[in-house]
């Protein structure tokens, strides 16, 4: 913002190249009960003592370990670091008698019995958000992609919002909640948006509007307890990235590689459109909101809105064409093999479909947890 506005500028640490970073939230499971185990501190301490090069973060819940990559040029590099870190976490967890598991949400664990990590900010969040904040037994994937200038950030975010249902449907893996099948592909999505700092971003036209908005949030106290907004897609000024937080956590590294490749390609695709002077796609906010709901409800079976004229197509058709359209760029970015794993997910079914098939046959969520734990072991890039 200009001088005299009273609005403090938000410096954006520009990234000269479209570098990549990934965060993957993984939970610890008691192999006897298949319930969540609040042992993240012990696991993290054990890994740090043995593998100080591995970057892990304590998350909101004491049952969760977050794997955080460094800055990478390509998807294979980021995935390789995650594989290394996953092996270290698996070793520590096994020594403590635990299994590793990941999905968008746990299908039967009681949120009342899952302690929050011992961090003042988390306690403040619970105090403010109460019932909704206490229920966040949810896990996601965050993908950071470097952006060269802050003027590009919001045009790219607004364009990415037109692909919101594609990123969500591909990874939707949270149909079960509190022991029931919710009927949603991603119940995580519906839960998370209840928090006052979460949900869809507003379609800001430029960086100045974002600075003005954050100024207002600071004055009104909205972000006092968190320091930031937790939009589904947001700027990360400290890192010079756009952070895409749409996806449910996948149960395995193979599917994670697919969605990271798709995300990387989409961001670079829109960035190149700016280079060429082309107009980036944008949808009306009500269409974006409807697409989010449809992907959360129906996953890969969603019919999504694809144009400002309210044209509609099946998200599976869209995803299949996206893989072909982005293939040359993926080749350039070194992630063609990972991008092509999107097609594999379309054939096999997303996480929510695999979970639901097992639950429908067995009537139990226990084998659903077991299947996801096996996928963590077996489904590697």
Automatic annotation (TrEMBL):
MF terms (GO), sorted A to Z: ATP binding; glutamate-cysteine ligase activity
Functional summary from the UniProt entry: ATP-dependent carboxylate-amine ligase which exhibits weak glutamate--cysteine ligase activity.
NCBIfam families in the record: gshA_cyan_rel, PRK13517.1-2, PRK13517.1-4
Keywords: ATP-binding, Ligase, Nucleotide-binding
EC number: 6.3.2.2
Reactions performed catalytically: L-cysteine + L-glutamate + ATP = gamma-L-glutamyl-L-cysteine + ADP + phosphate + H(+)
Family according to the record: Belongs to the glutamate--cysteine ligase type 2 family. YbdK subfamily.
GO biological process per UniProt: modified amino acid biosynthetic process
Species of the source: Corynebacterium humireducens NBRC 106098 = DSM 45392
Gene3D superfamilies in UniProt: 3.30.590.20
InterPro entries hit by this protein: GCL_type2/YbdK_subfam, GCS2, Gln_synth/guanido_kin_cat_dom, YbdK
Superkingdom of this protein's organism: Bacteria
Protein's recorded name: Putative glutamate--cysteine ligase 2
């Amino acid at each position: 913002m200009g001088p005299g506005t009273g609005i403090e500028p938000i410096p954006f640490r520009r990234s000269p190249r479209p570098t990549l970073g990934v965060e993957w939230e993984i939970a610890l499971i008691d192999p006897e009960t298949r319930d969540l185990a609040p042992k993240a501190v012990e696991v993290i301490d054990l890994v740090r003592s043995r593998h100080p090069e591995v970057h892990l973060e304590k998350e909101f819940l004491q049952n969760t370990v977050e794997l955080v990559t460094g800055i990478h040029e390509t998807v294979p590099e980021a995935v390789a670091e995650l594989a290394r870190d996953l092996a270290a976490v698996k070793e520590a967890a096994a020594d403590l008698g635990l299994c590793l598991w990941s999905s968008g949400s746990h299908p039967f664990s009681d949120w009342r019995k899952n302690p929050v990590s011992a961090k003042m900010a988390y306690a403040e969040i619970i105090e403010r958000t109460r019932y909704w904040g206490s229920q966040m037994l949810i896990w996601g994937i965050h993908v950071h992609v470097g952006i060269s200038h802050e003027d590009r950030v919001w045009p790219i975010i607004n364009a990415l919002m037109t692909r919101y249902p594609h990123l969500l449907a591909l990874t939707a893996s949270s149909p079960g909640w509190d022991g029931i099948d919710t009927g949603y592909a991603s119940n995580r999505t519906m839960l998370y948006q209840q928090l006052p700092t979460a949900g869809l971003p507003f379609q800001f036209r430029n960086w100045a509007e974002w600075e003005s908005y954050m100024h207002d949030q600071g004055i009104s106290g909205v972000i006092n307890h968190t320091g930031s907004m937790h939009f589904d897609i947001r700027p990360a000024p400290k890192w010079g990235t756009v952070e895409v937080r749409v996806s449910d956590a996948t149960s395995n590294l193979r599917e994670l590689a697919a969605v990271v490749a798709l995300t990387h390609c989409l961001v670079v695709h829109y960035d190149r459109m700016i280079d060429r002077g082309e107009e980036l796609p944008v949808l009306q906010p009500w269409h974006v909101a409807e697409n989010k709901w449809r992907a959360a409800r129906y996953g890969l079976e969603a019919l999504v809105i694809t144009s400002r004229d309210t044209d509609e197509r099946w998200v599976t058709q869209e995803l299949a064409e996206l893989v072909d359209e982005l293939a040359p760029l993926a080749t350039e970015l070194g992630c063609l093999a990972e991008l092509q794993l999107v097609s594999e997910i379309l054939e096999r079914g997303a996480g929510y479909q695999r979970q639901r098939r097992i639950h429908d046959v067995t009537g139990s969520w226990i084998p659903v947890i077991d299947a996801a734990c096996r996928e963590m072991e077996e489904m590697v890039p």
